[in-house]
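User: Second chain of the day. Same drill as before.
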Amino acid sequence: MGSSDKVASPTFTVSKQYTAGDLRLVHYDFYRLHDPGLLQYELAEFIDDSKIITVVEWADIVHDVLPANRFTLSIKSTGDTSRQITAHVPTSLAYLLSEVS
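Assistant: Same format as last time:
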């Protein structure tokens, strides 16, 4: 994105925001929550904003708020130092991978 913001995990703050030009990235981590509370309404509002990229960790708790047409990345531990990464990318979002090599 080109942001110069210092990036940190939102595990304890639940959400963090970063800016780059006229774009904003909002990163949620719902790991510690059993109920998203008011954050689900904030999340729903951000998802509909074309100037905001929304990243959600531990998204099961807010699955009903997330759009059906979304990029999903799953990371599964397969050992002490290895992970299996699986991506589900709908055809309509394939352009997001055009810069990935």
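The chain has one domain: 15-97.

User: Great, on to the next one.
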